Amino acid sequence: MPYIDGKLASGERVLRREHQHWFVLVADARYGILAIAAAILLLILRAAARTSGDFDRVIGFVVLALVLGGLVYLAWQILRWVNEEFVVTTRRVLQMEGVLNKQLVDSSLEKINDAVLTQSIFGRIFGFGDLDILTASESGISRLRMLKDADGFKRAMLDAKHELELELSGARPLPSPPLRAASGPPSGAAPAPSSAPPAEPRHSEMTPDELTRTLASLADLRDRGAISPEEYEAKKADLLRRL
Question: I need a labelling partner for 83 at 20 to 30 A (CA). Which of 59, 106, 136, 141 fits?
Fold first, then answer.
């Protein structure tokens, strides 16, 4: 089981996982790649010079050290890249890093005020970008550097935030219970008197302050394009009916 899955709260679900772009892996592993390239170059030069004796053995030891060191360094950087993961859940945005010693940083969706996506021309071509997450607290994730499909990650995060706000405000309608087939009384029998009057439908009560905050959050989501104007008007009308 992935490490992050074991740290989720009760009822919390993972909605999206992403890594940094593979350009980051190549940049971090450049010394290992250069060491292997230097070993190959030394082998070519030794074959062209046709050296022999002690010098040839020294070159062989140098090539072996470069290849082994380069492979070990490259393998370590691959492990670091695989273990650095960015996750959107139904409650939080998490960033995990570390191969042996793990570090897990999270930002609650409730405290996220905005997200700024920055993409260069190469980022648009190769599908990566920098995502700045602005939160109401000083701690938490602040910048996701060279994130793969940063635009899709941002949309998934805003959608999860919208769903959480609807859940906390009670604006999301509850599912209707399944209808039971009514069985009529046997012929000739009088219908049984009702023991209690039908229950009135229950509505969640909201204070004016809670209504104002919820409408402001919905308007912010509409302005950022997370929900359509029609969805905003429908949610607004539903909230006003609940007063």
Answer: 136
